[in-house]
Amino acid sequence: MAEGIGIIGAGVAGLHLALYLQQHDIPVIVYSDQATQQMASGRIRNTVAHHHTTVAREQALGVDHWEIGQYGYFCHHHALGSPGPGIPPLRFPGDFEAPSRGIDYRVYLPRLALDYQERGGDFRVGPVTGADVPALAGRHELIVVATGKAGLAGMFPLRADKMPYDKPMRRLCGGLYHGVAYSAPKGVTMSIAPGHGELLEIPMFSAEGFVTALLFENVPGGATEILADAQYGDDPKAFENLVLDILRAHHPAVFERADPAEFRLTGPDDLVQGALTPTVRQDYVQLADGRWAIAIGDAHTVVDPVIGQGANVASYEAWELGTLITEDPVFDERFCRKAAARRANRVEATVDWTNLMIGLPPAPHLLRLLGAMSASRPVADEFTNNFNYPERQWDILATPERTDAFLARHGMG
Amino acid sequence: MAEGIGIIGAGVAGLHLALYLQQHDIPVIVYSDQATQQMASGRIRNTVAHHHTTVAREQALGVDHWEIGQYGYFCHHHALGSPGPGIPPLRFPGDFEAPSRGIDYRVYLPRLALDYQERGGDFRVGPVTGADVPALAGRHELIVVATGKAGLAGMFPLRADKMPYDKPMRRLCGGLYHGVAYSAPKGVTMSIAPGHGELLEIPMFSAEGFVTALLFENVPGGATEILADAQYGDDPKAFENLVLDILRAHHPAVFERADPAEFRLTGPDDLVQGALTPTVRQDYVQLADGRWAIAIGDAHTVVDPVIGQGANVASYEAWELGTLITEDPVFDERFCRKAAARRANRVEATVDWTNLMIGLPPAPHLLRLLGAMSASRPVADEFTNNFNYPERQWDILATPERTDAFLARHGMG
Q1: Prediction pTM value
Q2: Cβ separation of A338 and B345 shorter than 8 Å?
Q3: Distance of CA B237 to CAs A319, B259, B264, Å?
Q4: Per-residue model confidence (pLDDT) at position A276
Q5: Which positions in chain A touch B398 (Cβ < 8 Å)?
Q6: A399, B332: Cβ pair inside 8 Å?
Q7: N or C: which end of chain A has fewer CB within 10 A?
Q8: What is the pLDDT of residue A413?
């Protein structure tokens, strides 16, 4: 007998969906490759923050455990390095309408997994691979794949039409650090070193308390790429000094708040280095027994972390799927088509916007918008708040003409 | 210099959009082939009623001129003739959550056209054909084609994937009559004569006051088809007697309320006979100068009137397009794609549901649903109220399995 919804994966997508369904009395089982206590340890998973649209979902799910005034942040500080002689560097802020919040996923995910279990949720721990999916499908009315691990994303064919890159555009070095004072007002600093890449500096709460995430997005061949290869374990102090040197040379807006005497990685597991090729996969597939599987989160899209949208879009996909399940619990192709259609605008905008941000050389209309942000606080605020609404950001950035129309609305035609 | 939005057509789609844009201070010009006073005369245009979702739009637009308690109706009365020996006829009602309303379009449209003009709207009268569209496009940022007249719909290619029929499935005879007492509670009667077709009896307000619309949907080759060919002008009394005879023989639930002494067509122009092949067209096209034209209402879809959805979906398309124009006034392909995507679920459901209702022979799961409605008031109420929400109706009727799931939710598994 089929038992409601089977969710494979216990990341933000899987847990938000599980909590939503549980809240609506819809039978659900979560299949996780890690027990709750394992989720609390190991290497840092990402350096992502949740924007207010995601925080609002957490509030609705009753998992808003971190008081937003204390744990949240309120703005973006932009720091654009000089792209060439005679062009000055720029610094300007942009405000959110409501705060965002960065919580280390080794704190966040186990807390939500516990919430789900304490409310009676069925949480099963063990490896799941693609080979296990047919058996799981026989036990459930619908399978939701909410992880890209164990090759599970491969069930869903790639969508070449939404994949402009066949290789990573940035090589990453993300870590948690002590010794960087928060900006005032407390915010994320987005520092751009033309030709070399970006730095995202994010106020983050981890098991160590309040720390600072530094995510270096390094252009291959650029002066900061060395960070993606440097081995912390070989010589921690040398690694930290390298990071400080790169901050000083390329990201001075953050370096100014670093105290070299206190600056250090918070621990050997608190560093992630690598690179990813952005992928988009088909929304759903039919399984051999006629049932359907839907992809959410990393199983559906993997975006570069440069604008921190991955977790937010994963939560969004979970929420949209959850609402559709409550509205129309008949799990056929019509259901899957509706699930795909209702999320398409925001998800595709997230992908397209992120891919624009990592394009090389930067698109002229993106540079024009950044310049306008430096001259107009309302423009900067709207761009910043649109981190909550990627489809609105893409309305502004999809074409040069759209950027022009947006600036004209702000009197900058 | 481009002047906002150009709307070709002053039917419900064109006027609802024009009023919406006017209300939001967006420049708009309506191009109508009829002056306001001409819209008040001539042959009856249809026998459609507006369901509450449409009435709510009229309220928001400030054109809710006909007090709903007096002019509205509250339910559907279903009368199913016996399909064969030993199977009894069935009668059962279904309630709306909020009233619907039928107003003769020769009263309705000129009133709304006047509202628009009295509020300062630019309303230009004259013929417009496809040949005029390029010149109009040069004067506007976006062209909206809101009429199928003058071959304008032909700008938009047909969508064969949504057109199961290559010929009309019913031959129509719709007219306004005196001499039929309203049902109690006041409602529409949907009478089905198996093998011969349907009758929709609709309380309608016309220039004559409260009258009754009778829309005969006649199956080609059936016993009532003669109504589609009978010539009222040759012998009005003979025509009316024929209608009475057919009511008596095939639609007794309505005949019971007809007073033969008073029964008559309200006037020679108050009759429309014909047939139509349901069409769906592409949502938008690019014009030679690079601008875009979007189809709404009849230019986009023409459905059989059997469930009276045409005007309601036209209003819905106007509303959805209006909201998108206020949200994202950049009229490029992205805009058109979004316009198409946001209306697709309801519009396609309207088309698919209507086409199911006129299918021959009737689909077994549709008959199963009608049978369940006769046995369960909640089922009948939900089907009835879903005339406001075609996408929900299609959730119930898209497949036999969906009908089964719906009935199971009502304890009729």
Answers
A1: 0.94
A2: yes
A3: 63, 14, 8
A4: 95
A5: 332, 334
A6: yes
A7: N
A8: 76
CA distance B369 to chain A (A): 17
Please give the angle made by the CA atoms of B148, B154 and B157, to the nearest 5 degrees: 120
| pLDDT for res A323 | 98
**Which chain B residues are within 8 Å of A334, Cβ to Cβ?**
394-395, 398-399, 402
Query: Which contiguous run of DSSP H or E holds residue A215?
Result: strand A209-218
Residue B150's pLDDT is what?
86
Show the tokens assigned to A412: 């900058």
Single-letter amino acid code for the residue at A16: H
| C-alpha span between B175 and B204 (Å, rounded) | 11
Contacts of B341 in chain A (CB under 8 A): 341, 344-345
Give the ipTM of the model, two decimals please. 0.91
Query: How far from B289 is each of A212, B138, B156, B176, B344, CA to CA, in Å?
Result: 53, 8, 16, 46, 27
CB of A408 less than 8 A from some CB of B = no
- Per DSSP bridges, beta strands B171-178 and B271-274 are antiparallel
Contact status of A338 with chain B (Cβ, < 8 Å): yes
pLDDT at B221 over 50: yes
Contact A334 B398 (CB under 8 A): yes
3-state SS, B144-207, equals EECCCHHHHHHHCCECHHHCCCCCCCCEEEEEEEECECCCCCCEEEEEEECCCEEEEEEEEEEC
Residue whose pair of structure tokens reads 């054109």 in the numeric block: B63
Residues A305, A312: Cα–Cα separation, whole Å: 11
Confidence of residue B1 (pLDDT cuts 50, 70, 90): very low
Shortest Cα–Cα distance, B46 to chain A (Å): 32
Task: Measure A330 CA to nearest chain B CA, in Å.
Answer: 7
Q: Please state, rounded to an integer, the average pLDDT across all residues of chain B.
A: 97
What is the model's pLDDT at position B2? Answer: 60
- Most distant pair of Cα atoms in chain A: their distance: 72
CB of B408 less than 8 A from some CB of A = no
Task: Write down the residue that tokens 């909590």 correspond to.
Answer: A19
Tokens of B337: 């794609």
The predicted model gives A174-191 an average pLDDT of 98
Whether B344 sits inside 8 A of A341 (CB atoms) is: yes
